[in-house]
Amino acid sequence: MSRIFVTGSTDGLGRNTAIELLDQGHELVLHARNPERARSLDDLTARGARVVVGDLSVIDQVRGIAEQANDIGRMDAIIHNAGVLHGPALLPVNVVAPYLLTTLIHRPERLVYLSSGMHKGGRSELAGTDWSGGQTNRTYSDSKLFVTAFTMFVARAYPETLCNAVDPGWVPTRMGGSAASDDLRQGHITQAWLAASTDPESQTTGEYWHHRHQQAPHPAALNRDFQNELVAQLASHTKVSPPSHP
């Protein structure tokens, strides 16, 4: 049994992932933005899951989430699932929060970051990026390119940790909308598999996955200079040193 932390787990892919892993017998640590949202997890806490609370768009609250997670104990895997489509919280939630949680939570054996097929339309230009979200001049595609590049950076920085990015597909969740054409179950099985499976094929790192198949990400995500500049900007914004090999 593994202890697995899933961010953004009150609904959609995060909740489905949590249920899948609970059904497999794993210990789950879930995340809700606020106490009201946490109450939607009562059915899962009744099954033994624990919940940490905090708003991923607020740096001080992200620090609090990391402290709550560390107080529970070392995680075997973390699935950075939480995300938003647009608005001032876009970069803070989709990119800054995964950066901070990666650096502040005790290092697990496995890290999974939710990307998107839309990252291939992202712009690999970092100049002028407002990581606070004050200027909403970045798109969802940009944010997912950034988090995919960050995944590849972490895979280099933590070679002993299995670190992968997942495109869950366009599935009919609240975020994806009712017109989404992908199979809802396919939206969460890859990240659950990467987080907990003993299947030799899952023992990989530095890869980009879609429905349990490796794919090629946007070339910029694999560019080390781009990765390094991205991480340098995140470190400067958060005042937290980046992941590094001990």
Give a verbal description of the structure.
This protein is α/β, with parallel strands linked by helices. 38% of the residues lie in helices and 15% in strands. It contains eight helices and eight strands. Strand 5 (110-114), helix 6 and strand 6 form a beta-alpha-beta unit. Helix 1 (12-23) packs across helix 7 (186-196), helix 5 (90-104) packs parallel to helix 6 and helix 6 packs across helix 8. The longest helix is centred in the middle third of the chain and has 18 residues, at 140-157.
Blueprint of the fold:
Blueprint: E1 3-6, H1 12-23, E2 27-32, H2 35-38, H3 42-45, E3 50-53, H4 59-72, E4 77-80, H5 90-104, E5 110-114, H6 140-157, E6 162-167, H7 186-196, E7 207-210, E8 213-215, H8 224-238
Parallel strand pairs: 1-2, 1-4, 2-3, 4-5, 5-6, 6-7
Antiparallel strand pairs: 7-8
